[in-house]
Amino acid sequence: MSAAKFLNYGVAAMALHVIAYMLVCRPKLRTETAILAFHVFLALALFVFAVIFVVLSIDEERWAAAVALVSVNGIYSLTFLELWTLSQISYSRELLVRAKNGKLRSASSNADELVRLGNEKRSARLLSLRSMGLLASTEHGWKLGRRGKLVAAVLQLLLWLPNLRLRG
Amino acid sequence: MWFASSFGALVTSVLLHAAAARIAPLRNRVVMFLLIGTPIGLMLALINAASFGWTSAKTLAAVVFYAFLCELYLFLFTLALASISANLLITLRGGAMRQEDIQELYDSRSMVAIRFNRLISTGLICLRSAGLEAEGYELTARGERLLGALNALRRTFRHE
Question: pTM to 2 decimals?
Fold first, then answer.
């Protein structure tokens, strides 16, 4: 199989993925876990396809084609998941809707309804971070776990590089 | 060489972006990165095409791999900025916190206020003319376009 044919098959697989989502899977993939699994499945399939393609005849052109396909899939899935998450319920969108309906007075007067969006998730968030090994609970409260220290350091670097300070 | 050139282009983009973010700290970071990263990506394409040709898989791989790394970088720093979980992890670098302190720091009311101020500073909402009407905020044209796009996405993804 040539590199061009390999890339065509890979792009066709991504096109089928989109068609399958739009025509069949859309009503069933309503949660973050489900939509992530849908994309991880494609990513793994393409990764295995790429590895087989490279291993069959190792040369730089085939290796480049494999990296190109995995990168294109990365761009597709990352863009899809970002748009999917962005369009879910959020404080910002709720504020925009209220502004459009002429019901936005100030942050404080609208906060009561909007606060409910965050309160439910706060406790679940701490437990979720603990289950991932990022946080540990002690008699004094919460602290970073070993994995959490590394992740927090990387996140801090990601804020420092583009000189970002305001968080929220 | 093509693989290393993608990483080199990314490092160059990130460093120039870091410098620009310190020279013009009030500018939108995402737009700034796109303005810096796009010409670097074009140069990457030209350099690789000169070595391998426009139709080579190596040229394509260098450019799309760079594009993917750029998107990943954008995603990660916007996540670090906006994600409450990410913020919490960064805050805990300063030491352990009690449950009550975490609840106070991440009080949902202050989260709403931060979002509100961000919508104003990015020009998505503005103060309605006072006149005889009570003070309030309304969508700007930009806010209308964004809300329209978000609603279209919600319908596409069946979030409603």
Answer: 0.83
